[in-house]
C-alpha cells in the first residue's frame, strides 16, 4: 500500500512535496552510478553493493569498521573441535520486510541458493566447503563442512539472508529486494534514484535513526559536489581523491578517510594468446609504473600495491618483495621477445566506467605502449562491462574490485581453478594446492606462509596486474553524525547515523 501510494504521488506530480516533508530525516545521498540489479546473491558492481549490503540485507555475521567479525543475524555460534560443524543461534523476533518471520529455514535456503548451479552466484566459491545446511529448530541452524574452513565466518558476512520462497527464483530480487536490514526498498526510478525507508520493525531497537535513504544517481562529479555544498545532498560516499581534493575546506563539508581494501588492476584473459603465456603477463607487470599511476591518476592519495591491501597488515606482503614491481620497459620488451610474440602486441582493454579507472587506464595504456604493446581502450557502460567481464569477453580489462578482510574471500573464488569469479580462466596446480591448504588450516602462521607464497606467484605471472590501493574518502554535510568510511566500502553504519 505504501508503494502504491508513493507511485500515485509521483503520477500526480507531488513527489517533491512528499519528500520535502521528510527531508530532515531521509538522508539524501549522491552517487555516480545506479545499480545494475539488487539481488544480493548475483550483484557484482559497487553501486549495487552500496544500496543493498547492510542496508536492505544482512548476513549471519557482519564485519565492523575495524574489519573484525561480529554477530549479525546470528547472535552466537559454536564450532566443533574438528572445525567441521558450526551451530548458529539466530536472533529471535527478526522479520523480513514483507512482514514474515525470519527462521532457520530461510538461512538454509539462502545458502542453498548461493550454491545452486542454476542461480550461478559469484559468491558460490566462498561456501564451497559446506557439505550440508540444516535447520535444527526455528532459531537454530547447523552447517556441516567437507573440511575445515578458516574463512567461513568472514565469508558468511557477505551472504545475505533472503526468504526461502526465493531459493529457485532468479529474477524477483533483482528489482524488488526483500531483506531483514534497517532499511527497506521503496522505489527505484532508473537513472533517477533509489528510495529506501526505515524498517519500523527492525530487530535492533532504536535503529535506524534516519527515516530513510535516497540514493540520487548523478553521473557528473561537479553536480554532486555542488549538491553537497548547497545542502541538496548530505553524503557522497566512497569518492575518489580528485573529488575529495576539490571538496576539502568547503564550508559545512567534512571528509572521512581510510585505506581502501579495494584494488585497482589490469585483468588478463589467459585462455587465449597472448596472455596464455606467463612471460607476456610478467611483461605487463614490468611495463607498469605503479607510483606514476598513484601520482597521476590518484593525485598521490594511495600507494602501489600487490594482491592484498596494505590495510591487511597481518597478511599483505611489502611490494618491494616483488621483482616485477620495479618498472623496467626494456625488461618487458625482452620478455615479449622470449615469449616469441610479434611486437607491438595489439590488444584491447575494456574500462570500468569510473573516472578514476579511466584515468588509470590511460596512464597504463601509455606505459604499455612504451614497452612493446599497442593497447586500444574500449570505454563501456557499466552493464556491458560487467556482462563482458562475467563472460570472459576481454583481452585486458581495467577495473576496481572489492577486497575482503580474509585473503580466502578474494583469492579462492578469483584464482582457484573453476572459482566463481575466475573470469581470467586461470588455472595453476600450485596455486590451487596452496589455496586449499590455507583454507583448511586453523593455524594463522601456517595460513600466512601459504598466502605469502600465493602472493609471490600471483604478483608477477598471475592473471591480474595489481596496481594501487587508494585512500578512500567520503564527503558529508557537517550535520551528519555517526557515519564513518569503512575499508570494505560498506555503508553498514548508516543505521547508526543521524542528521
UniProtKB/TrEMBL annotation:
One of its GO terms (biological process) is peptide transport. GO terms for cellular component: ATP-binding cassette (ABC) transporter complex; outer membrane-bounded periplasmic space. One of its GO terms (molecular function) is peptide transmembrane transporter activity. It is found in: Periplasm. Residues 68-419 form the Solute-binding protein family domain. InterPro entries: Peptide/Ni-bd (IPR030678), SBP_5 (IPR039424), SBP_5_dom (IPR000914). Its main location: periplasm. Keywords: Signal, Transport. Residues 1-24 form the signal peptide. Belongs to the bacterial solute-binding protein 5 family. This is ABC transporter substrate-binding protein. The lineage of its organism: Bacteria, Pseudomonadati, Pseudomonadota, Alphaproteobacteria, Hyphomicrobiales.
Amino acid at each position: 500500500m505504501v508503494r502504491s501510494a508513493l507511485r500515485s504521488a509521483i503520477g500526480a506530480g507531488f513527489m517533491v512535496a512528499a519528500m520535502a516533508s521528510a527531508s530532515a530525516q531521509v538522508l539524501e545521498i549522491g552517487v555516480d552510478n545506479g545499480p545494475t540489479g539488487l539481488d544480493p546473491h548475483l550483484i557484482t558492481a559497487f553501486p549495487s553493493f552500496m544500496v543493498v549490503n547492510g542496508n536492505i540485507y544482512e548476513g549471519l555475521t557482519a564485519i565492523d569498521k575495524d574489519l573484525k567479525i561480529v554477530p549479525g543475524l546470528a547472535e552466537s555460534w559454536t564450532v566443533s573441535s574438528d572445525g567441521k560443524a558450526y551451530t548458529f543461534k539466530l536472533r529471535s523476533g527478526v522479520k523480513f520486510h514483507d512482514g514474515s518471520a525470519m527462521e532457520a529455514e530461510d538461512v538454509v535456503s539462502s545458502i542453498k541458493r548461493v550454491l545452486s548451479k542454476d542461480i550461478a552466484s559469484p559468491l558460490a566459491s566462498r561456501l564451497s566447503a559446506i557439505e550440508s545446511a540444516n535447520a535444527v529448530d526455528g532459531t537454530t541452524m547447523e552447517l556441516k563442512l567437507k573440511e575445515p574452513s578458516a574463512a567461513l565466518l568472514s565469508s558468511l558476512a557477505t551472504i545475505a539472508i533472503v526468504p526461502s520462497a526465493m531459493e529457485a527464483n532468479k529474477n524477483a530480487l533483482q528489482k524488488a529486494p526483500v531483506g531483514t536490514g534497517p532499511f527497506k526498498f521503496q522505489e527505484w526510478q532508473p537513472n533517477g534514484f533509489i528510495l529506501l525507508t526505515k524498517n519500523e520493525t527492525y530487530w535492533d531497537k532504536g535503529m535506524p535513526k534516519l527515516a530513510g535513504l535516497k540514493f540520487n544517481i548523478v553521473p557528473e562529479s561537479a553536480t554532486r559536489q555542488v549538491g553537497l555544498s548547497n545542502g541538496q545532498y548530505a553524503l557522497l560516499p566512497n569518492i575518489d581523491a580528485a573529488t575529495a581534493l576539490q571538496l576539502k575546506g568547503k564550508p559545512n563539508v567534512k571528509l572521512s578517510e581510510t585505506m581502501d581494501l579495494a584494488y585497482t588492476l589490469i585483468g588478463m584473459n589467459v585462455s587465449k594468446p597472448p596472455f596464455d603465456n606467463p612471460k607476456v603477463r610478467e611483461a605487463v607487470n614490468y611495463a607498469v609504473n605503479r607510483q606514476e599511476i598513484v601520482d597521476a591518476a590518484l593525485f598521490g592519495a594511495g600507494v602501489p600495491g600487490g594482491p592484498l591491501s596494505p590495510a591487511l597488515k597481518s597478511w599483505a606482503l611489502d611490494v618491494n618483495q616483488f621483482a616485477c614491481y620495479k618498472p623496467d620497459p626494456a625488461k618487458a620488451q625482452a620478455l615479449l621477445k622470449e615469449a616469441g610474440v610479434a611486437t607491438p602486441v595489439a590488444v584491447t582493454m575494456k574500462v570500468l566506467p569510473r573516472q578514476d579507472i579511466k584515468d588509470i587506464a590511460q596512464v597504463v595504456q601509455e606505459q604499455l605502449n612504451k614497452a612493446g604493446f599497442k593497447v586500444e581502450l574500449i570505454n563501456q557502460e557499466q552493464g556491458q562491462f560487467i556482462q563482458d567481464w562475467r563472460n570472459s569477453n576481454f583481452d585486458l580489462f581495467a577495473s576496481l574490485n572489492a577486497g575482503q578482510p580474509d585473503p580466502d574471500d578474494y583469492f579462492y573464488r578469483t584464482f582457484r581453478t573453476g572459482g566463481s569469479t575466475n573470469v581470467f580462466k586461470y588455472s595453476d596446480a600450485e596455486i590451487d594446492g596452496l589455496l586449499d591448504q590455507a583454507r583448511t588450516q586453523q593455524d594463522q602462521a601456517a595460513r600466512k606462509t601459504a598466502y605469502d607464497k600465493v602472493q609471490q606467484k600471483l604478483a608477477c605471472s598471475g592473471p591480474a596486474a595489481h596496481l594501487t590501493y587508494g585512500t578512500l574518502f567520503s564527503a558529508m554535510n557537517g550535520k551528519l553524525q555517526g557515519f564513518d568510511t569503512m575499508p570494505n566500502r560498506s555503508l553498514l553504519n548508516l543505521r547508526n547515523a543521524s542528521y
